[in-house]
Amino acid sequence: MAVRWGVLGCGGIADRRTIPEGIIPAPSAELVAVQDIAEDRVSEIAARYEARAYESVEELLAHDDVDAVYIATPTHVHHEQTVAAAEWGKHVLCEKPLALTTQECETSIAACEEAGVKFGTNFMMRFHACHAAIRDIIAAGDLGSVVMGRAELTCWYPPIEGAFRQSQELGGGGSLIDMGNHCIDLLEFLFDSKVERVSCFTANLVQDYETEDTAVATLHFENGAIGIVDTLFNVPDSAARNMLEIYGSKGSLVTQGTIGQSSVGSISAVLEEEVGGYDAQQAREEGAAEQIIEPVVVNMYEAAIEGFCQAIENDTEPPVPAEDGLWSHRVIDACYEAAQTGQVVEAG
């Protein structure tokens, strides 16, 4: 039997990606209800997907035929909606960040545990075929000792009236907490290692709002590798490269555009079985050792939804549990503290 889904906050990423690419095509999912405070929007989206429309969260949650909810509302209401869903016995898949504060994240997790419902974090980029392939290559030892990784996510995000990501009170921060958490989580996923300590710089270099439009974090991982995450709200979309670069003692793995909302892409790989002696000229024959790896495309939104459905059906842990979202929040908190103090800060 398919897991019957309700969506809280059906505009934005829900309508753009998660509903049409995730819930609708997932074999184990069925969309039954959508909610949004914008009456015209929720009516139009409900009609398009043949689902029931609600302006009230409580009205949607009250229906017995909703098994799970996907929360894609602004950050400041994630906590209260997660707790409400748990009280109604609904499983919860929530967009990141899970809440405004780590304390709210912890309370949300406790509420779901008490209610006996699944609670997952929607770090969908873990399901990208290129990222899964990179993780496998690293785990197999083909990259040697992992030395450094860089994850970049940028976009043009000008001042917009009422935009929660531009409000400290509504979003908890700017480019770092909105996009940097994806990048940090992805590097941890690829390295299979947690962040140990961080340094960070944030700034408003272009956009005129209270949250940062620029953030660069340096990460030290438990396995010794170094990471760099740069997230920008002030670079034109046409200029964004959204690079992922992983370097090891046997080579490199580089993608362009796989960090973001697209499920397609390829890996530019240089993998040396044996590394020679020191070459003072650092001679390079352009492209000679490069190979292009093109994994079979997997829609990461569908994979994320299907994985969560299977966790419900099999009574197993969600593929990205809420505890990972809590940890992400702690690392982001450490980054903000590092930016404010100019110090290296322990994560967690």
Quickly list its features:
single chain; 348 residues; alpha/beta; Dihydrodipicolinate Reductase, domain 2; 2 domains; nine-stranded mixed beta sheet; six-stranded parallel beta sheet; 10 helices
Explain how this protein is built.
This protein has 348 residues and is of the alpha/beta class. It has 2 domains: 3-123, 3-Layer(aba) Sandwich (Rossmann fold); 125-300 and 330-346, Dihydrodipicolinate Reductase, domain 2 (2-Layer Sandwich), CATH 3.30.360. It is built from 10 helices and 15 strands. The chain has helices at 12-23, 39-49, 57-61, 78-87, 102-115, 129-139, 168-171, 175-191, 300-314, 322-341; strands at 3-8, 29-35, 52-54, 68-71, 91-94, 119-121, 146-154, 195-203, 214-221, 226-232, 243-248, 251-256, 267-271, 290-293, 345-346. A 9-stranded mixed β-sheet has the order 14-13-12-11-7-10-9-8-15. A 6-stranded parallel β-sheet has the order 3-2-1-4-5-6, sandwiched between helices. Helix 1 crosses helix 9 and helix 5 (102-115) packs antiparallel against helix 10.
Helix content: 25-40%
Shape: globular
What is the CA-atom radius of gyration, in angstroms? 21 Å
- CATH level 1 class label of the largest domain: Alpha Beta
Number of helices: 10
Low-confidence parts: none
Strand content: 15-25%
